[in-house]
Amino acid sequence: MTQVVVGENEHIESALRRFKREVSKAGIFPDMKKHRHFETPLEKRKRKEVAKHRQGKRRFSH
User: Fold this and answer.
1) Cβ-contact 47, 34 below 8 angstroms
2) Where exactly are the structural domains of the chain?
3) How many CB atoms lie within 10 A of CB 23?
4) Which is higher by pLDDT, 30 or 18?
C-alpha cells in the first residue's frame, strides 16, 4: 500500500505529486483498471485470444 506522510510545512500539492509518483511507480493504476469489474473465465479466455490474434497480426504485418 502506498503511503505519503505530509510534513508540517509541506504544501498539499507537493504531497499529492509525491503520492501520484509513488502510485505510478508501484503500478497500481493498470491493476486497478484490470480489477474494476469482475471478469468471468470465459471473458478472460476471449480477451487473451483477441490479444494473441492481434499479436500475430502485428508479427506478420512487416
Assistant:
1) no
2) 12-60
3) 14
4) 18
- Write down how long the chain is: 62
Quickly state the pLDDT bin for 33 (edges 50, 70, 90).
confident
Dihedral (CA of 19, 22, 24, 29) sign: negative
Which amino acid, residue 8? E
Q: Specify the amino acid at residue 53.
A: H
Which is nearest to 25 in space by CA: 2, 48, 42?
2
Quote the pTM value.
0.54
Q: Which three cell numbers stand for residue 20?
A: 501520484
Cα–Cα distance measured from residue 19 to residue 5, given in angstroms and rounded to the nearest whole number: 9
- 29, 23 in Cβ contact below 8 A? yes
